[in-house]
Amino acid sequence: MAAGTTTAFDVPAAARAVLEGNWRDGEYRGRHYAFSVPSPRSYPWQWYWDSCFHAIVRRRFDAPGARAELETLLTAMDPDGFIGHTVLWGHPLDWQRAIRYNIASRSDLMTSTIQPPILAWAWAWAVGDPAAEPRIARHHEWLREHRALEPDGLLWLIQPDESGMDASPKFDHVWGRLAQGRMRFPLLIARNRRLGFDARRIAAAGRPVVCEVLTNVAWSLSEQALGRPSLTPALIERLYDPRRGRFADDVRHAVHPTAPADRPVTWDTLAPLALPDLPDAIAQRLVDEVLRAPRFADGVPLPAVALDDPTHTSRETWWGRHRHWRGPSWINSAWLVSLGLRRLGLDDEADTLARRLTAVVAREGFREYYEAREGYGMGAHDFGWSTLLWELVDPAVPPALGGAPPPPPPPHASRDD
Q: pTM for the complete prediction?
């Protein structure tokens, strides 16, 4: 465990139990699948970036299973390289969910939108060199062709949920009453369905598209994992404001155009800390002026929205629908930020994040997210990517990303046994 972390809570054992309990293995439409659902009761299918996080943790006790989880995403991939936000293994959507899911038809295996593209980076963590898997390169070709709307190569989103931060208040000005979690969100899905979920057609029609921070952090990490030129300089050029010392989305055709300085203060301005090539001066300023400020530092790591921001709320539902990422804290965010802290040599601060989160999880279990002030568990139970706590308390970067070789797995951990 991280230096100074003392607790009776066995993080590795508890994390392993969640991922094993969530494991699904079978055949569907002539394809084999093997992965952990995000949560048995709330999320019964495979979610793209959830599976990437699951594989990163699973590599510690079940390397073949970690690879199988990522292989399952590639098994679902269309011939042109597209991989959807959600893969509907086992059974199709019922008609009620079909209204709220980004599908062209109920017969589709996948939704027609994306999530932060961290597959290549996760492959480097869990398997090895992603350049040795040609299907990953094909996936990147699709993303570049269909979502890089400008010559700088950064990706653009057509819906708020593509960012993985579904109902973040930073999207309120972009989509207004059609934003994720609002009653009219199905109208946005229907409009994009009519336009073939095609970002270029949507932008040409004068509809909102967003060059989003977290998505492009994931994209830069994955491009670098493939051995390609880093997109971090382009990300800084387009999304970083040196006067404010913050990152903010570039938005076209917003319903309510709003300058970055007037938007909600959300955690994703810290997401670039995960980039290995983020200039130290920018990284240190983010730590000094954002992460260490009471608006984030006083909360359970890491609040989705600054504690003092007017949009911050612990409320979970509106009109009977969940609106995620409007205040409570998420473990995957804390882990990504901790990577930057350790790169800067701020191990004590990363260890503090780990200790604080361990105490919360020991009390509340692996929940989807946690109330940002008191730390009570919220959202789904037995939530897979919250097992990233293991990465926080026992940091171990794999050889493919410049780290040391991992320790041997415990006996009988392999699925080939």
A: 0.94
